[in-house]
Specification:
The chain is of the alpha+beta class and 195 residues long. The chain contains five helices and eight strands, in the order E-E-H-H-H-E-E-E-H-E-H-E-E. Bound molecules: coenzyme A.
């Protein structure tokens, strides 16, 4: 059995952005994010989703968010009330209190610290209110910006999984990162605050 908690609704504010539950009004901005060529090249879809694809997926995302216990946190990264990114926390294994984070920021906002802030807020959610023990993240070997984000929030590189993903007909290795609730926080008080 697990004593993980289901958190809803999520609203977490950082100095630059807020993580909150996505809303129907975000779908156009989400579409713009996921179809930008610089983002689509990094994501796992065969082709970027159309706006209709996103509208069709929305009811399933809503159902996932209502599941008990909650395992899927799909959160808008919001600046000035507009979605500029997406952050995800998935509870992969409630028994072993293990989850995985993911994040995407619109290229118009790269280099402003939003990726790092979103990843830090996801860890705060995972270790704080949800109660995870271990959080993992997977990135590509040719993606130093993403390694940098993960290292800045205190995650450690644990190794490479060879041919871990088949994406658009090509095998990709994955660089595996993780952090434990008992690891020292990247900045004192920044990750393990229990809110
Ligand atoms: C990865 C991503 C989230 C980074 O977002 P961001 O808001 O630009 O991130 P930040 O501004 O917080 O920090 C990025 C860090 O990477 C560094 N960086 C950026 N490009 C880099 C590069 N080519 N080589 C090395 N470091 C790089 C920046 O200098 C910064 O580190 P610093 O603060 O020490 O200078 C963003 O590029 C993205 O959404 N990419 C597409 C989707 C994706 O790949 N998601 C991750 C899947 S694992």
């Amino acid at each position: 059995m697990t004593d993980l908690r289901s958190v809803r609704p999520v609203r977490l504010a950082g100095p630059r952005c807020t993580l909150r539950e996505w809303a129907d009004g975000d779908l156009a901005a989400l579409h713009a994010l996921l179809t930008d060529a610089r983002v689509a090249e990094r994501t796992l879809d065969e082709t970027p989703p159309s706006l209709d694809d996103l509208r069709a997926a929305a009811p399933a995302w809503r159902r996932e968010a209502e599941e008990e216990p909650r395992r899927h946190y799909r959160l808008a990264v919001v600046v000035a009330d507009r979605l500029v990114g997406l952050g995800t926390l998935v509870v992969d294994n409630p028994v072993h209190r293990r989850g995985e984070i993911g994040y995407v920021i619109h290229p118009d906002h790269w280099g402003q610290g939003l990726g790092t802030e979103a990843a830090g807020l996801l860890l705060r959610l995972g270790f704080g209110r949800v109660g995870l023990h271990r959080v993992e993240a997977t990135t590509r070997p040719d993606h130093p910006a993403s390694w940098r984000v993960l290292e800045k929030v205190g995650m450690r590189r644990e190794g490479i999984s060879r041919d871990h993903l088949l994406v658009r007909g090509r095998w990709w290795d994955s660089v595996r990162y993780a952090i434990l609730a008992t690891d020292p926080p990247a900045r004192p008080g920044s990750l393990h605050a229990g809110d």
